Amino acid sequence: MVKHGDTIDSVFRKTALQYSEKVALIFQEKRITFSELDKQVDKIAGVLGDRGVGKGEMVIIYLPHMPEWVVIWLALQRIGAVAVPVTHFYGHEELGYIVQDCGAGTIFCSNKNIDQVLKASSKYRLASIIVVGDRAEFKKPPGMESTEIFALDDLLKGQSSPPPQVEIDGRDVAEIIYTGGTTGFPKGVPIKHVLFLDTINGTRKAVESIIPRTKAITVQGAPLNHILGQDLGLGSILSGDTLIILPKLDLDEFLFTVDKYQATTLFGTPTFFKMVLDHGKINDYSLKSVLYAVCAGEALPNETQKRWTEKVGRPLYSIYGATETCGLVSGVTVGEQAPPGTIGKIVPTKQVKLINPDTLEPVQVIEPGELLVSSENMVTAYWNKPEETSRHFIPLEDKIWYKTGDIVRMDEQGWLFFVDRSVDLIKHKGYRVAATRVEASLLKHPAVAECCAVGVLDGNVGEKIKAFVVLKKDVTVDELIKLCSESLATYEVPHYIEFRDTLPKSPVGKLLRKKLRDEERQKQNSADSHS
Q1: Between the CA of residue 244 and those of 69, 142, 408, what are the distances in Å?
Q2: CA–CA gap between residue 246 and residue 269 (Å, rounded)
Q3: Measuring CA to CA, which residue among 67, 428, 490 is closest to residue 272?
Q4: Among 92, 135, 250, 269, fewest CB within 10 Å belongs to which?
């Protein structure tokens, strides 16, 4: 239970003290006990304190999965700084935007992406760049004389002071997670200690009947910069369980790890679980130890759920949440019989409304409506985005509600079912891709007059990205794909590009994205009926 005044660091300290010799982390067969993890956290917290990083300061974690990621995140909580975790796939444009938006002065990166950091920092000044792992040879761009670059190993070899003693309140901001949306760049979601602890406590409590606390062995199946990855990953450590981190999500390594360490808990997107089931070597490994497998990020196909249950002998559970709600809004309680296609029932810490998105009036039972979410310690605003905040966080009945943009329906028993989304997001492999970002990248080419991006349903990855482009002059598809690859993350690059003479528009000139999406689905339905 989360107590008044608890912080992420206070909970971790208690856990590390109580289970000091228990294994907290496993990475490439290296085991780190809670005691060892606590000492590493203390060391990095001291190093950051010596570098002048204090309470409330923003620090970006721009790293692939490794133990240092977890240690740095916990160290920032110890000194009251604000962690800003971002995917290590981001290029310098996205990274530079986040540096400017949150005002970070320090960033942790690897030798593989320091070039992107240097490009970003040449425009948006960073005070300190700390490189984890071997520091690669590089040239500091002109104008960056004031930016200091360190290797973390060098800093740790020196004599550091104990972590600074700071007073941290449970309502202080612990981190800012950037999430995609319908605007061009991601929006920062500030998450308080108490909200984060409420979330992970509720998630862990839901499975205690089959996996007692401290007995879970969890394989990290979603990015640590993603709220799902944090809820079940970082939440695992704070609960006294063991977390296994994989450097990358290779299916053979994943299945080998589950089998070798007798993992009890798995999580990821429905697409990921389908890929596991489709893997040609799945029968070479045992999944008998898995007691709790859970997915989120997109709708779970009934066929995937059925196949998983037949293969493992236990259900694949579906949960629903958002970064803005700090994760879990609804889910299926372990052991409960759930109807096919549901995203679960509302968790105790959240309240919801289903409304007509145009009138904000409640809809009738069973009727679909936009999902609104509220909670006691909820996020109430985006970071530095007053206009976006006013659109997505609205006052109703003396409460602030987050407008999810998702259309759902609820039956008489309280089960929720996803219907559609009212915002133009493309869900590819569990990532939320803003169509406007894809379009903005394409429009950088002088040959492109206008364009529109939509999601095309795909059984393997959820949706693939298709762009419709009107040209001013000739250009090849390969040239446009190359342009997008230079300015977008790998998962945002279009899979298909179709040239058209015109694009459908409303009487006021607004692109009719839905019309293009519907056309693609009609083509797919027609193809399926003739196959």
Answers
A1: 13, 41, 34
A2: 16
A3: 428
A4: 250
Tokens 């409506």 -> residue: 369
Question: What is the torsional sign of CA 99, 105, 110, 116?
Answer: positive
Instruction: Output the pLDDT for position 420.
Output: 66
Q: Read off the DSSP letter of residue 64.
A: -
pLDDT tens per residue, range 210-238 = 999 999 999 998 899 999 999 999 999 99
On whether the CB atoms of residues 326 and 314 are closer than 8 A, the answer is: no
CATH, domain range 425-529: 3.30.300.30
CATH homologous superfamily of domain 294-421?
Answer: Luciferase; Domain 3 (2.30.38.10)
Give the CATH number of domain 8-247.
3.40.50.12780
Judge whether 231 and 199 are in contact, CB under 8 Å.
yes
Tens-place pLDDT, residues 424-447: 678 888 887 878 788 889 988 999
At 262-282, the pLDDT tens digits run: 999 999 888 789 889 989 999
pLDDT tens-digit readout, 334-344: 888 888 888 99
Judged by DSSP in three states, 420 sits in strand
* pTM beyond 0.85, yes or no: no
In whole angstroms, give the CA distance from residue 50 to residue 69.
20
| Whole-angstrom distance, CA of residue 134 vs CA of residue 89 | 19
